[in-house]
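Lab notebook, bench 4. Still working through the backlog of constructs that have no structural model yet. Next entry is a single chain of 83 residues. Request: give me the structure tokens for it.
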Amino acid sequence: MVKEVKEEKKEGTCVCEKYDLVWGGHPNVSCEFRKKVVEICLDLWGEENKIKMANNLMAVFRWESGGTFNLMFLIRQILEELV
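Model written out:
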């Protein structure tokens, strides 16, 4: 089940900026990415824990992507393991 994330804009800022996620300011982390991370964490852990778990998930994404938040980095790593 996918929930629709409401986009609220006030004074030129997006609702995702209020989350203040770790690594949320990385140049490869878009507003859509931040919203999706929070949405996933809301679905899995509820309103009370969504930001705490979203920060944990962001830390995992950073580690797994070598700090790049780039899908191609992950694909390259997987291909190298297969060879």
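Notes after review: The CA atoms of residues 24 and 33 lie 9 Å apart. The chain has a mean pLDDT of 85. Flag for follow-up if needed.
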